[in-house]
Predict the 3D structure of the following.
Amino acid sequence: AFDGFEPERIARYMPAKVDKLLQNDGIIRHRGKIEATIGNARAWLDIMEKSDGFSPYLWDFVGGVPEQNKWKKMSEVPASTPMSEAMSKSLKSKGFKFCGPTIVYAFAQAVGMVNDHMIGCPRHKACAKLAMK
């Protein structure tokens, strides 16, 4: 539906493509989210053009090194942090949509910018070792 998620193609979507996507029952048919995807592609391209790239831009929020948390129980894990709030604010200032601090923090967890495995979890130590390489 989204052309292989190629930002260069998505950024050029016109209203007719949005209307077509709104008829696609294989995706979430929400005009705001579809339009945000187009705007986010444009914002991503802008960052790529004006900086060293998107990855370095994001990793700057954690100083280039994954944060190593030492949670003992799930109730200690925050939904957002000052880092995710700063990243969210920066992304929004660059034109991104649907990137609040909670979703940004979940993204940071998913891509390994934040190690939020419980200290008793076997993956905690393994992820911490990966961060030292």
The beta strands are 67-68, 114-115. The chain has a mean pLDDT of 96.
